[in-house]
Amino acid sequence: MKLAAHELYDLNELAMSCVNSITNMAYMLQHVQDPAFKKFLKSIFRSISGTIT
User: Lesser CB count within 10 Å: N end or C end of the chain?
Assistant: First the structure.
């Protein structure tokens, strides 16, 4: 399947946005102090990544 230049650009932007969101969540997991919010973040991160440390 061939993609036009603007389609590749949009796809790249989407992928980078997803990576950025996951990176921010991983960072927040290390710094969040509220147990309820941390549990919430862990559940989302687990569903995205499949594992959690």
Answer: N
pTM: 0.65
| Amino acid at position 15, single letter | A
**Angstrom distances, CA of residue 21 to CA of 6, 35, 42:** 23, 21, 14
Tokens standing for residue 21? 């969101």
What's the length of the chain?
53
How far, in Å, CA of 33 to CA of 36, rounded?
Answer: 9
Q: CB–CB of 49/22 below 8 Å?
A: yes
